[in-house]
Amino acid sequence: MTKQTHRAGFVSIVGKPNVGKSTLMNVLVGERLSIITSKAQTTRHRIMGIINGDDFQIVYSDTPGIIKPQYELHKNMMSFVTTSITDADVILFVTDIYEKHDENDVIEKLKKSNVPILLLVNKIDQVKDQKDLEDKVEYWKESLGIENILPISALEKFNTELVLKFILDHLPEHPAFFPKDQLTDKPERFFAAEILREKIFLNYKKEVPYCCEVEIEEFTETEDLIRIRAVIMVERTSQRGIIIGDKGAAIKKVGTQARLDMEKFFQKKVFLEQYVKVEEDWRKKDFHLKRFGYKQD
Ligand code: GDP
Ligand code: MG
């Protein structure tokens, strides 16, 4: 039996306001599971949505410069830190059939990029004369020098299946960036935990972060506030001391940094409570590994 390859990557949807990026996004993510709310925003880029298949994961983002979590493979542990900045794997450049040609700034950036670009001429349901479309395609071929141009109507879901096909054809072979099972259910908790985990990686010496696990015990959102209670699990009492630090200074710093990023991410005030719990040898225990999504049943 040949092992099926898994593809995963980041897809940036770029283009001027009003060209139909959000509409297209809704079609692409559609009724599939794992929709991340539009407010989901990492510290460096905004995640518009994630779709998972058995053998792929597409992370849509709406900024061209984006961040990819870096893999830390530890036996069956899938932990990552979100620090390395790389380019998108695929760029969808959305344009409007009757939009004026004023994208010179974007064009210059895209020309320099080595990433596969699919140019979408959207809203073709509005085309009055077929020649308008032909002219537009010709214009883009010349100004961008790319062949991958696809006329679509996001509104009428015309040709949008081909967008997905293009992405899947150009997505690199890679394991999923975000654990699939955790995203279907409570993506907000997942990202809150990720942010706190990132701060732990930034604030403690090499081996300490690997002994920690973060779990979000409470996540309650009201009109103007999100209350988050996070547990940082460590394996030994000595590690607990390190995490907390002198008079609690270390954990306080981590908490403040995490809270500020969470507020950016969720676009709301966050009340973050975090405490440290000793859970001996949690890494060796199947129960915990499953709970944190590192291990499948
Ligand atoms: P964004 O600013 O790029 O995210 O654009 P939106 O997705 O918010 O769309 C802007 C407007 O264009 C909305 O009124 C959409 O309904 C409309 N729109 C988007 N796609 C199409 C399309 O394919 N055809 C038509 N006729 N209108 C569209
Ligand atoms: Mg939009």
Ligand species: guanosine-5'-diphosphate, magnesium ion
Report the helical percentage. 25-40%
What structural class should be given to the helix and strand makeup?
Answer: alpha/beta
The largest pleated sheet is described as: 6 strands, mixed
Strand content: 25-35%
What's the Cα radius of gyration?
A: 22 Å
Shape: elongated
Low-pLDDT parts are 31-45, 64-86
Lateral strand order in the biggest sheet: 2-3-1-8-9-10
Number of helices: 9
Distance between the first and last residues' Cα = 22 Å
What average pLDDT do the residues reach? 78
Describe the fold and architecture.
The protein is of the alpha/beta class. It is built from 9 helices and 13 strands. The chain has a 6-stranded mixed β-sheet, with helices on both faces. Strand 8, helix 2 and strand 9 form a beta-alpha-beta unit. Helix 6 (187-203) packs across helix 8. The longest helix is centred in the last third of the chain and has 18 residues, at 249-266. Bound molecules: guanosine-5'-diphosphate (GDP) and magnesium ion.
Write the layout of secondary structure elements.
Elements: E1 7-14, H1 21-29, E2 47-53, E3 56-61, E4 65-67, E5 70-74, E6 77-81, E7 85-87, E8 90-96, H2 104-112, E9 117-122, H3 130-144, E10 149-151, H4 160-170, H5 180-185, H6 187-203, E11 213-221, E12 225-234, H7 237-244, H8 249-266, E13 269-278, H9 286-291
Parallel strand pairs: 1-3, 1-8, 8-9, 9-10, 12-13
Antiparallel strand pairs: 2-3, 4-7, 5-6, 11-12
Helix pairs in contact: 6-8
The chain binds guanosine-5'-diphosphate and magnesium ion.
